[in-house]
Structures are given as structure tokens and as C-alpha cells.
Amino acid sequence: MKHTLTLVAAALIMAMTACNQQENKQESTNQNTPEMKTETTLKEVPGRKNFGDQHALVTTPQPCVMIATWDKDHNPDVMMAAWAGQLDYNQIVISLSKHKTTDNLELTGAFTVSFADERTVAESDYFGLVSGNDVPDKVARAGFTVTPSPNVDAPIVNEYPLTLECRVVSFEDGMLIGEVVNQSADESILTDGKVDLTKLKPIVFDAAGMCYRALSDSVGQAWGSGKKFQ
Ligand SMILES: Cc1cc2nc3c(=O)[nH]c(=O)nc-3n(C[C@H](O)[C@H](O)[C@H](O)COP(=O)(O)O)c2cc1C
Does residue 123 have its Cβ closer than 6 Å to ligand 1? Predict the structure, then answer.
């Protein structure tokens, strides 16, 4: 299990590295930087179109996680991150460039993670478009409010109904690992006491189409639908 999760993390690292490399390519066409890998001559995959190592498609669809932190003056900041995943049962990993958020979490050692949903598309995208360094009141401008987490030194965004409260385990080479110390959910997204994604209505980032997509209905039982082949 841990091995699989490590592979997922490695894929995420590769995705973000490729993202940075793509930006480098755009800035300096045909100029190899030391961290860029050498070009590989690709062979056709029969019946398919090759996209090479385009970062856009690596793990799409990706989750839209919303990271909330306090800044040095205790102002809340929220940013969108799509290069994120689960590393272990109680750990998440997020690939981050330098942002106000990263300054904040290095200061406090904590953050919360919520999930963008169909009701909050515009606000969530705004949190990915604008930096708290330029717009210190970006959370309020989006009309969102926060409550201090009782468990970690970070804000909980009231408008997102599912939130993980996280302690920073490490933040090295742009890779944030957080320990989830608590998850809390608003009653409005529960069915029989369990989180119900039909009610949460989370969205995912479609890196191929550069858009957000809704998740639709359950289409099978995990560790169940495949039993017919056993
Ligand atoms: C769809 C989307 C996905 C993003 N994913 C990431 C990500 O995974 N890692 C990252 O460092 N920045 C990511 N960003 C960029 C940050 O959200 C953006 O730079 C934000 O303004 C940072 O806010 P802050 O400076 O207030 O912390 C993403 C933005 C969008 C719109």
C-alpha cells in the first residue's frame, strides 16, 4: 500500500516538475535548463495519439484542493492546488511553488485543506488566480468567511463543507507533506452520518480541457464491482 502511495507521490512530483519545465520552455524556447531532462525519441503507440511528456495530461483529472493559512498578521489566505494527493492513510502531499501560502505555512506549521465544489467554482478559481501578496483581503473579496481551527493554527473556510486540519510534516523541494489531524464535515453533506459526495458535489481540474468538471454519480462499488471476474 505504502509502495503504491509512494508511486502516486512520485507521479505528482513529476507532474509539478514537468509543469515548471513547461513554463521554462515557454520563457526560453529551445533553451535547456540543467533540470530539464534530455529529449527522448518517442515511438508510436498503435492506435493512439502520443502527447509526449506534456504536463497537462499527466494525472488529469486532478482534485481541486483549497489550502487555507494564516499570514503573519493573522489574515486568512486561501489558494487552489491541483497537484495534490494522498500519501498515506493520514498524510497528504501537495506540490507547491512559492506563494504567500507557502510563506504562511512555514510560519505557522499548519494549514487546512477543503474541496472546491460546484457551488464555489468562481470563488475557488479566484483563489487560484490571485495572490494574497497582491490582494491581502482576497478571502473577504470572494465573500468567504473563516473560523479558527480548534486543532491546528490555521483557518477553516466556512463555505467549504469538508475540511482537513493539517500539521506540516515537511516542506522540501516544493513538496508539502501534511499530517491530517482531523477531518470535519458540515451536516449538509452527510447521509447516515457519512460524507456523501453526491451532496458535496466536488469538482476536478481537467488539465486537458483547462476547465473544472463535476463528478457524476457512483458507477460501481470499490473492491466490489470487479468481483464478477474472481
Ligand atoms: C486550477 C489551478 C490549479 C493550481 N494548482 C497549483 C498547485 O498544485 N501548486 C501550486 O503551487 N500552485 C497552484 N496553482 C496556483 C495558485 O493557486 C496561485 O498561484 C495562487 O494565487 C497562490 O495564492 P497565494 O499567493 O495567496 O498563496 C493553481 C491554480 C489554479 C487556477
Answer: no
> Could you identify the atom of ligand 1 that is nearest to the CA of residue 96?
11
- How many other CB atoms are found less than 10 A from the CB of residue 122? 11
Nearest CA to ligand 1 atom 16: 128
Residue 14 backbone dihedrals phi, psi, to 5 degrees: -65, -40
Q: What are phi and psi of 128, to 5 degrees?
A: -95, -10
Residue 196 has pLDDT above 70, yes or no: yes
End-to-end CA distance of the chain: 21
pLDDT tens, residue by residue, 10-57: 444 334 433 333 333 333 333 334 445 556 788 999 998 888 877 667
Cell numbers that stand for 58 in this block: 499527466
Q: Which CATH number fits domain 62-214: 2.60.40.2310, 1.10.620.20, 2.30.110.10, 1.20.1180.10?
A: 2.30.110.10
Strand (E) or helix (H) holding 63: strand 62-63
Residue nearest to atom 23 of ligand 1 (CA): 131
Q: Which of 79, 96, 112 to mutate to test the pocket of ligand 1 (most atoms within 8 A of CB)?
A: 79
